[in-house]
Amino acid sequence: MLLNQFLLLAAVLFAIGVYGVLTRKNGVLVLMSIELILNSVNINLVAFGTFNADVSGQVFALFIIAVAAAEVGVGLAIVLLIYRNRRSIDVSEADMLKG
Amino acid sequence: MIDVIVFAISALIIIGGAIGVIALPNPVHAALSLIATFFGVAVLFVQQEAHFLALVQVVVYAGAIVVLFLFVIMLLGVDRAQELGVEPLAGQRAAGVAVGAVLLALVVGGLFLSGDPDRGGAVALTGQSGQVVPTVEGEQDVIQLARDLFTRHLLTFEATGILLTVATVGAVVLVRARGAEDLILDEPGTAQH
Fold this sequence. Notes:
The structure holds two protein chains of two kinds.
Chain A lengths: L2 H21 L3 H25 L4 H31 L13
Helix pairs in contact in A: 1-2, 2-3
Chain B lengths: L1 H22 L3 H21 L3 H26 L15 H22 L9 H4 L14 H11 L2 H22 L18
Helix pairs in contact in B: 1-2, 2-3
């Protein structure tokens, strides 16, 4: 297998995730798109680690999974608070800092 | 040859799931296609002999994180379809397509154009033409992983532990109900009891 296969797949996944973050209005779905981006980074890390016969890539992917879990916990808490205050999780309505 | 076939199938599952996440109007369906993406990535990990990471990918991502997403979707009662036709910001969807396409073009262009064209694009990144061969040196990947994690990356490991603790406490503090009335999350008319 070529390294380029993995890098291309991760690039496509990353671009799809960026599109989702930019266009989704539902706050939960924005967080899911961020998960797509983090997964594309994991694909790259493991592929480079295998390519260099070094286990460090897998270790960093493990750290990314842990950080993603923390990010989802805090992010969903924020979504919950937005819903409690505004009765909506439409992120385009949470614009009180606009101006 | 079998490697390429496995890669192609899991790549199709990954991309299909990702498109489902960004295109399906119902958040529950989007979460389910996110699971498909996570499983496809886990297959890629298995293919590269990263068995422990594939296990963690399925248990933590497809298990815990997606269940957390579904839990919040159900708790908030927002599992109805998102109105895809209404654009709150003018041209937001077109701008999203443009930014995503430009990012993809940049990365793919960097992969293909920057290297020596005779030897494949990955040369610029890696110094040699890229061939991914899983290496098993008599030891299981989890043993190698643990040795690396607890020696070279011990400080990072501790910092990740602190981060997880802080995030857990922070999430609890953020959503803690200040009074009894805050416990009722649903609208009064739609409560089920």
